[in-house]
Sequence to fold (183 residues):
Amino acid sequence: MRSITIPGALRGAMLLLASILSAAPAGMANPVPQKKEYLSEAETDKIREAGATGPRIVLFATFASDRIKKLRYEFAHFDPTDRKRTERLNSLINGYAGCIDDAVDLIDIGIEKQQDIRGGVKAMQAGIKEFLPYLQGLSANGLERETYKENLDDAIEATQDAAMEVDKAAKEMSAPPERRKPS
Fold:
C-alpha cells in the first residue's frame, strides 16, 4: 500500500479551506438585521426603543404620515429647475410604502402572538383614511406623474392591501380582558 504525501503548503491551504467551509454555516445562523434604507437613524432608534409591537405599528404609521406630509410639501413648492426632485419624490413614495408594509407585517405578528396591538391598528385605520385618497388623487392629477407613476402605483397597492389587513386585524383581535371589581 502506497501512502500519498502532501506538501506542507498544499496541506495548509486544504486546512484553511476546510476551516472556512466548516465555519460558514455558523456565521449564517445569526445574520445581522438589515437596516431599512427608508428610515433615518433617529427613526430606527425609535423603532428599536419602542420594544412592543403595538407602539412600533404606531411609529410606522407616523413615519408613513411624515412621508405623505413631505410629498405634499414637494408638490406645493414645485421648482421645474430642481434636478433632484424626481429622485426625492420616488424616495418619499418608496419610504411611505416601506413603512406601510412594515406596519402590516407587525400587525400580522401581533395577531399571531396575540399581542395588544389595538393602538397600532387604530393608528393605521386613521392613517389609511387620509393616505389612500391623497395617493389616488396624485395618481389622477399629480404633477409630472410619469416620473413617479410606477412607485405611486406600488404605494397605492400597498395601502389598499394594508387597509384589508387592518380591517381583518380589527375583526380578529380578541376583546380586551374585563377586570373584576374587587369585592
Summary: The radius of gyration is 25 Å. Residues 41-172 form one domain.
